[in-house]
Structure formats: C-alpha cells, structure tokens
Amino acid sequence: MKKPKTSPRRKRRFSNRGGLVMIATLLLGSAVLRMGDNAGQAFALANDEMEITPLEPAPMLAQCETSEDLKPILAAFQSREAHLSEQEDALRDRMHALKIVDEQVTRKLAALTAAETALRDTIALAETAAEGDLARLTKVYETMKPKQAAALFEEMTPEFAAGFLGRMRPDAAAAILAGISPEAAHTFSVVLAGRNAEVPKE
To answer: What band does 43 get if pLDDT is binned at 50, 70 and 90?
Structure first.
C-alpha cells in the first residue's frame, strides 16, 4: 500500500508553524527571566524600605489574687507549716542533745566497767594477801609454845580466836585450849562448832 504524498504547500505550512512555536518559546523564556530579575530587585527594595519594629515585651501576668473565702484556709496552712517547721527544729535539737548524752553515758559506762574490773582485781589481790597473812600468822601460833600462845588467845575475842583455832593443826589447837581457862575454852569451842554447823552438808 502506498503512502499518500504530501504536497509542497503543506510541508511549507508545517515548517512555518514549527518556527513560530520556537520563537514564541524563546520570547516567553526571556520574559520569565526578566520578571524574575525585576521581582528580586522589587523584593530587595521592599526589604530596604521596610522598617523593623522591635517586639514589645509580653505583658506581665497579673498576680493571682486570693479570694476572701480561701484566705482563712491559706492562713491556716501557713500557720500549720510554720508550726511543723518549729517542731522539726525542736526535734532535731533534741536528737542532737540525746546523741551527746548517749555518748557521755557510753564513756561513763566504759569508765565504770574499767573501774569495776580494777576494783575486782584489787579485792582479789587483797583477799589473796589477807589469806597469806592469816596462813603465816596461824603458822606462827602453831610454832609458839602452848603456854605463850594460850596467853595470847586468852586476850582475843571468841570469834577471832575460833578463826585461828579452826585453821591450826588439831594437836596445836588442843595444846592451846588446854592452856587457857575452861570458860574461854568452852566459848571458843561453841563459836567454832557454830561456824562448822553453818557449813552446808551437801
């Protein structure tokens, strides 16, 4: 199938139309460019002529006024808060004072414990020394002649003499009892027997 032939007149019409479209496009682009430059200059001039007004500070908010109905409640809360603050301060001072007293009591207890220990050691030492003195004195009475020892025992109180007689050997004690008066010997024997009677049997 053959293509229809285009006439020369029609070809010329198409070519003229394409040229017109290109010229119109160029003119339109040039106009847009000019408008862009003029718009930028216009904006620049407008910015230069525009006065910049500083911002005014925001108005201060008015203080909230308490209504008359709430004022007694607010005053009561403030009074209670002040009272609680005073109580806290007093409690803090009291705790501080108690801490100081507790430290003093602890130190005094430690001193008393040390003194008690020292006193117990002193008493034990004194008892040991006294026991040693009694043992030596008893030994002296045992080695004395019975007549001389009897004269000394005759001058002693019954309790004191009975204490030595209870420590002495039986033969030395019998010799002394034989040398003193019957009344003194009886009294010494009663005291010595009474002391032994008080000793627990079990």
So the answer is: very low
Residues 156 and 180 in one domain: yes
Is residue 159 included in any domain, yes or no? yes
The Cα 10–Cα 4 span in angstroms is 13
CB atoms within 10 A of CB 70: 10
**Residue 67 is assigned to a structural domain of this protein:** no
Residues 113 and 76 in one domain: yes
- For residue 21, name the pLDDT band (cuts at 50, 70, 90): low
Domains: count for the chain = 2
Give pLDDT tens digits for 135-179.
899 999 999 999 999 999 999 999 999 989 989 999 999 999 999
Give the 3-state secondary structure of residue 65.
Answer: coil
CA-based max dimension of the chain: 191
CA distances from 184 to 150, 161, 195 (A): 10, 10, 17
